[in-house]
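FW: tagging you since you asked about this chain on Friday. Here's the raw sequence from the shared folder, copied in full. Didn't touch anything.
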Amino acid sequence: MKRIYPHIRKMTLEETNCFDFCNPGLMMEYENLLIPLNAGYTDSIYIYQEKRSIYILTYSTRIGYAGLDEIDSMDGDYIGAVFMEDYQLQEVISKQWHNMKPETLIRRLSGYL
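HL: got it, structure written out here
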């Protein structure tokens, strides 16, 4: 798994309307893909690629949640997604989930995709 650093920006008004969002979100631009992110402006975001899959880890230790999206790098289709709140992460991942390396958290969360 290799970390990648695609461009992330706020959505335009047109993109916000296109995705039926109430508020503008974040958009990832990677190669020929535009992918809306399930992340807030203050979330930590880590993006990795492995073969054809792009893994997008977003989390907030302040609010207490983590999410992982798996996306096909060829066409931008969602393969799977998981979202857990702090109490769930403590129960199924580790009580110290917020201290884990992003790669470890991705591997553990990917079992729930």
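FW: The chain has one domain: 2-110.
HL: agreed, and The first helix runs from residue 13 to 18.
FW: great, closing this out.
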